[in-house]
């Protein structure tokens, strides 16, 4: 049965900003989420036990504790919650997973930020676009985030989350950044943090390290990127243009 298991009852949240960090195109969501958790030394808060998630045990170097592969970390001072995932979500189970996550979002009155990479040729700094569901368009306007230049769709689990938010008229924001879909893209993650997460959540995130450690991050994430590609192929989380339907 789908559930969210709270592991730290001492953490108090009040209508938090929820940042989704599922692995997808360019691993922009994964890299951004990991960076937030590490930078703010966020506390392990809860675990998702949803349909579509593998029953795997995750452990860290030099630590004997094991944890589920999809977890929530929280910072009560900044009122932000981050979803960290070490596994891709099965595309065939994306709907069930989206229902599980959306149920928790509704119960906490969180504002979800869904992150996705757009496989589009970049010239200089990657461009960031935003889409919204419910009554969240003013959130984008206030942050100065523009809509995509062309039509498209967000696929995979992140697309399922946005679909569920639209279906239930939940306020949610989709942040879409240009990225290299074949390799981990720390630069795209930096853009999504600086120009998307920061102004919406009202936080300051040091991101210089993302660029300085780009080679190290790329090597560390390439194996995960390969697993995502092998597991889901074109159905993995990504934003993509729609050709010929405009």
Automatic annotation (TrEMBL):
User: What's a Pfam family in this record?
Assistant: PAC2
What name does the UniProt record give this protein? PAC2 family protein
> Where are the annotated segments for Disordered?
225-246
């Amino acid at each position: 049965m789908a559930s969210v298991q709270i592991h730290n009852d001492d953490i108090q949240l009040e209508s938090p900003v929820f940042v989704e960090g599922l692995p997808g195109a360019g691993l922009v969501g994964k890299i951004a989420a990991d960076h937030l958790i590490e930078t703010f030394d966020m506390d392990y808060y809860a675990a998702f036990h949803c349909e579509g998630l593998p029953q795997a045990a995750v452990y860290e170097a030099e630590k004997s504790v094991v944890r589920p592969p999809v977890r929530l970390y929280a910072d009560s001072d900044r009122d932000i919650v981050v979803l960290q995932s070490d596994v891709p979500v099965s595309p065939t189970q994306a709907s069930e997973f989206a229902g599980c996550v959306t149920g928790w979002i509704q119960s906490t009155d969180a504002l979800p930020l869904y992150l996705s990479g757009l496989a589009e040729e970049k010239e200089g700094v990657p461009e960031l676009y935003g889409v919204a569901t419910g009554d969240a368009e003013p959130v984008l306007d206030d942050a100065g985030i523009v809509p995509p230049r062309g039509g498209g769709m967000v696929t995979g689990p992140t697309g399922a989350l946005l679909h569920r938010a639209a279906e239930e008229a939940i306020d949610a924001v989709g942040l879409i950044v240009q990225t290299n879909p074949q390799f981990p893209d720390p630069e795209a993650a930096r853009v999504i943090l600086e120009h998307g997460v920061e102004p919406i959540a009202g936080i300051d995130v040091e991101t210089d390290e993302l660029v300085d450690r780009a080679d190290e991050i790329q090597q560390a994430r390439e194996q995960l990127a390969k697993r995502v590609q092998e597991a889901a192929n074109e159905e993995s989380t990504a934003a993509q243009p729609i050709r010929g339907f405009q």
